[in-house]
Fold this sequence. Notes:
Radius of gyration of chain A: 13 Å
Helix content of chain A: under 10%
Shape of chain B: globular
Distance between the termini of chain B: 41 Å
Largest sheet of chain A: 7 strands, mixed
Largest interface: A-B, 23 and 21 residues
Largest sheet of chain B: 6 strands, mixed
Oligomer: heterodimer
Structural class of chain A: mainly beta
Amino acid sequence: GAVVSQHPSRVICKSGTSVKIECRSLDFQATTMFWYRQFPKKSLMLMATSNEGSKATYEQGVEKDKFLINHASLTLSTLTVTSAHPEDSSFYICSAIRSINSPLHFGNGTRLTVT
Amino acid sequence: KQEVTQIPAALSVPEGENLVLNCSFTDSAIYNLQWFRQDPGKGLTSLLLIQSSQREQTSGRLNASLDKSSGRSTLYIAASQPGDSATYLCAAKKTSYDKVIFGPGTSLSVIP
């Protein structure tokens, strides 16, 4: 159990366009979902925390107008990278948690390349 | 501010060897600590979660311990296999509502 699906796994887009990444908890209801960014050979950097039905909480230095997060249901959160630039190219990973005592479960990540 | 470190950054061992990965955290007041595995280009797979009231957790060939007073957790892998090759990350959570702080990871290679 506790499967998190992230889609797409890879996306290439042109500079200036927007890209939407989906994160779904397939077999449980996620009270909270998290979005991370990972640079090559580096650990995960938390971008924002998303609770169903409320606004996401962004970490310091993360532009909320650039990285739009929507958590419309207990099983789906989306991250939209707006007006993408080459420096937004990165590996984005989501995670979900069933309750505060539960382990984090991660999606397989999305490799974004902006040309 | 909680900081999490992992030593060594990389480790290479022959198949069959038992090994220990180390995780240190600066603030001993943690809620739980979780160990993950990450394969190249993939997300993270949860291995073991230790609550602050627990001292260890076991799953198959994996055993994770937690010593809050010394700010340390170890992940013990018995009889290592080439399929264990991956990056292992630990992550500490300070309170039930806090974000999780990740260590930089240990890259493990098990040589056949």
